[in-house]
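Moderator note: this is an archived Q&A kept for reference. The question asked for a predicted structure of one protein chain; the sequence and the answer are reproduced below.
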Amino acid sequence: MAIRKKASSSSTPAEPGVKELKQSAERLQALIDDAPIGICNIDFKGKITYVNKRFEEVSGYSRDEVLGKNGLKLGMFPKETVKFLEKRLKNKLVGRPLPVLETQFKCKDGHWIWVALEGKLMKGGRIPVGFQIISRDITQRKEAEEALRESRERLRKMFESVTDGISVVDLNGVITETNQRTVKMHGFKSRDELLGRSAFELVAPRDHDRITANMRKAVKQGTARSEEYTLLKADGSEFPGELSSSILKDASGRWIGHVTIARDITERKRAEEALKKAQEQLIRSEKLAAIGQLAGGVGHELRNPLGAIKNAALYVRRKVSNSELSTAEPKVLQFIDLIDEEVESANKVITDLLSFSRVAKPTVSLVNASSIVRDSLNHVAVPGNIKVVTDVGPGLPMVLVDASQIRQVFINVVLNGLEAMPEGGQFEISARSEDESVTVDFTDTGCGIPESVIDRIFDPLFTTKPRGVGLGLAMSKSIMDRHGGDMGVKSKEGKGTTFTVSLPTRAV
């Protein structure tokens, strides 16, 4: 009877046969061929030993056209990329990694695409045999990036080309972005000086509460309308500006800050002031012309009856003086004296009216400003209780004026100053050269001009004097306007007044 030998339980499973290995290799090759990325194998001499189908599809080259050829000498890459790859591939041999490289690739038909290259060392066992270069077509991504870059560049150019200052401000009021116009407008040297700075530092402190309230309105309404504020330069100086703002939201609609638009309105303000001044001057000129015509006619008409009154008073005075009436009725002579005084006063008013109506176009010539000041003082009787101080140096430039008319202006101003100090005080005259003019200040320590009427001080027929007509300052202002000069006043009630006259040093 034969005895069967039991099989050993420790026997190993059978190893895969050649058929299974071949099938596995075929499946792996199929995966490589059909991979969505381009694969290219090269040996150490740079010759291409394998490319997959994706490489063929993207490049336009067939396998037969590239196998066995040097991949870096087919003109597929820019020269700079070829040099970079040669250097990096050599570094790979000593274990240094080949980073992902984004570069252009020239297809067979001549058009260029963008690819991302990544290389790894291939080994046969433990021996390096070449490199496997994996490429991904990133043309769409690059085109999208380029489109985004161009869009940002266009926006940046628009951002920088506008004539207004534009800034992006976060929820804390910190400037996170701004344009060069803002930098220039506020007198800074670079954007870096503004970035990270509080936007409130660019606005005068007295406007902070108002601008905060308007920013809150912007949050509720989406925008805040343009309003005028006092803005600040880097050196602390002020200038007028307009600010408007809109809220800034992110992609999810969350409020993240404000976009503010600032405009320097200095020139506009100057133009508005010049227009206002021109309009006031035109109105004043028309009013002066009308009053001048009336004054001339009235003045001549009043001279005749005043002359008759004066002659009648003189006749009565002689009769009374030669009779006993002067002794019996002494008040008769007093009344006659009063008549004479009032006639003289009326004659002075008429003289002023006639002078006002005869102000002619100035005949200008170069004159020494100091001499006009001295000559004006010589025509005025200064009371003993008033001290006159002059600070008018000989080095002032010559002024182009009608000397007689400017002397009349100075006399009017001096008389006004002296009359404002009935109890005495100090009257100071100082002169200085400014740009293309000589400015003369007349300062008294008198009663001052009430703030409620100072804006009317140069209006014709307006006066604060009990017996004044209100033509002296109006006529003086008219003369200065005709010279292309200026005349202004500053006063504090109870402290005194300063009249400022600017005389041109050149033709207007």
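Archived answer notes: The chain has four domains: 30-143, 162-264, 269-357, 365-504.
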